[in-house]
């Protein structure tokens, strides 16, 4: 699973500390949760997980 749209949101450290300005990007900013297909435990490596999450987040921070 990966979260999209957090950069610049209430939880971001962009332009200062996180969680200090609640409406940094407006009232209705979009944060998305995306999920990939399940992977068998025997096939998982830290590198493959990192690549999968990076691919799901691409195009939107």
List keywords for this structure.
alpha+beta; two-stranded antiparallel ribbon; 1 helix; elongated; 61 residues
Show the helix and strand layout.
Layout: E1 2-4, E2 32-34, H1 46-57
Estimate the strand proportion.
5-15%
Instruction: Quickly count the domains.
Output: 1
Number of helical stretches of at least 4 residues = 1
The value of Rg in angstroms is 15 Å
Helix content: 10-25%
Outline the low-pLDDT stretches.
none
Strand numbers in spatial order across the main sheet: 1-2
Q: What is the mean predicted local confidence, pLDDT?
A: 78
Order of helices and strands: EEH
Euclidean distance between termini CA atoms: 14 Å
| Biggest sheet descriptor | 2 strands, antiparallel
Structural class: alpha+beta
User: Care to count the β-strands?
Assistant: 2
Overall, the morphology is: elongated
């Amino acid at each position: 699973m990966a979260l999209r749209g957090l950069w610049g949101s209430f939880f971001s450290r962009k332009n200062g500390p996180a969680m200090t300005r609640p409406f940094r990007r407006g009232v209705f900013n979009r944060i998305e949760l995306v999920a990939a297909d399940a992977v068998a435990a025997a096939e998982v490596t830290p590198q493959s997980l990192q690549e999968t999450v990076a691919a799901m987040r691409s195009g939107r921070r």
